[in-house]
């Protein structure tokens, strides 16, 4: 048998550890995105006749509503604009032959929850998608956020209070029935350094932690909880119109994310986003300062362009 020196043994141990790590990562990815969605497929309709989606007339929320309707659930749409609510309800009824109910509510207001609670009191809601969320109109330094008090309060209410209160309204009946699904939409911004989006990213970190705790408390009572933390997705909020590998359409994103319910309780929802988040965090791990400098520079560029656009618009309106 060959004799290895101390350094050779160390090198061999390192190579084996690296190989083990790579194999573990590959197995994890294959299980999460390929095997899990087949073996853990959730029958949403069996969790309760109705699914409720907040912020459901556009973007990611509308796609969740459509995906759940395609799986046979009746849909409660809770959103702000009545014309968009009516149009979305008609589209879903026609395309998927399910019932819909609309509830108009503005999640930037505080006193909406009694009304929502009353309107859905008689419905067996098996799936809750806490999707509504509001971000900055453009990246900005904390003290310079425009209309500071109103903007910050709106973000806190729409991103954090909504998730907490809607879960508080719907979870107790799910627990009584011993089944249900709660999907909370966070953001990848809470997983990576997010200067100039501080309040939004912090609100989404709350969604992540809240989901983790609810999962720990109610998983054993038959409730599936999943927190989805997307990267960029084409939508009004992101302002991205053209789909790419790193910024898919809301439809592509939701098709991927919903297939992971029952497999992972915390996910970015879409494989290329996992690569993006891991790359940023690897750079951050190697050199925190460089990563923060890079992201701050990119945020400042976006901020500069947005401010220039606003200035031009204001000047046009005055002229
Ligand atoms: N898009 C991304 O790149 C991205 C990335 C990470 C996380 N997310 C998260 O994904 C979720 C959905 O984002 P999105 O990009 O799909 O947004 P979106 O396309 O802008 O759609 C937002 C939806 O929420 C409704 N809404 C907005 N403000 C509301 C309010 N105050 N009260 C009630 N409803 C309101 C909108 O209805 P109205 O049109 O009537 O206002 C619309 O139906 C959010 O939680 C967001 O933080 C998005």
Automatic annotation (TrEMBL):
One of its GO terms (cellular component) is endoplasmic reticulum. It comes from the Eukaryota. InterPro entries: NAD(P)-bd_dom_sf, SDR_fam, VLCFA-Steroid_DH. SUPFAM superfamilies: NAD(P)-binding Rossmann-fold domains (SSF51735). Keywords: NADP, Oxidoreductase. GO terms for molecular function: oxidoreductase activity. Belongs to the short-chain dehydrogenases/reductases (SDR) family. PANTHER family: RH59310P (PTHR43899:SF13). This is Very-long-chain 3-oxoacyl-CoA reductase. It comes from Pieris brassicae.
């Amino acid at each position: 048998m060959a004799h290895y020196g101390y350094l050779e043994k160390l090198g061999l141990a390192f190579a084996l550890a690296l190989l083990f790590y790579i194999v573990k990562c590959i197995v994890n990815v294959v299980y999460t995105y390929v095997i899990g969605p087949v073996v853990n497929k959730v029958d949403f309709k069996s969790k309760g006749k109705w699914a409720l989606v907040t912020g459901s007339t556009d973007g990611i929320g509308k796609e969740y509503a459509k995906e759940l309707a395609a799986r046979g659930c009746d849909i409660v749409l809770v959103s702000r604009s009545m014309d968009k609510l009516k149009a979305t309800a008609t589209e879903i009824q026609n395309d998927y032959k399910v019932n819909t109910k609309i509830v108009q509510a503005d999640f930037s207001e505080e006193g909406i929850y009694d009304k929502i609670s009353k309107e859905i009191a008689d419905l067996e809601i098996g799936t809750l998608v806490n999707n509504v969320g509001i971000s900055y109109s453009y990246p900005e330094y904390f003290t310079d956020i425009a209309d500071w008090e109103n903007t910050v309060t709106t973000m806190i209410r729409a991103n954090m209070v909504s998730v907490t209160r809607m879960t508080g309204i719907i979870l107790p009946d799910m627990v009584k029935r011993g089944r249900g699904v709660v999907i909370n939409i966070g953001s990848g911004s809470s997983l990576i350094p997010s200067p100039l989006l501080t309040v939004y990213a912090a609100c989404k970190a709350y969604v992540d932690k809240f989901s983790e705790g609810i999962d720990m408390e109610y998983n054993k009572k038959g409730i599936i909880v999943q927190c989805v933390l997307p990267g960029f997705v084409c939508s009004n909020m992101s302002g991205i119109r053209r789909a790419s590998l790193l910024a898919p359409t809301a439809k592509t994103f939701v098709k991927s994310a919903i297939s992971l319910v029952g497999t992972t309780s915390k996910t970015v929802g879409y494989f290329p986003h996992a690569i993006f988040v891991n790359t940023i965090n690897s750079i951050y791990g190697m050199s925190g300062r460089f990563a923060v400098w890079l992201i701050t520079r990119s945020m400042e560029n976006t901020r500069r362009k947005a401010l220039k656009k606003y200035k031009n618009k204001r000047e046009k309106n005055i002229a």
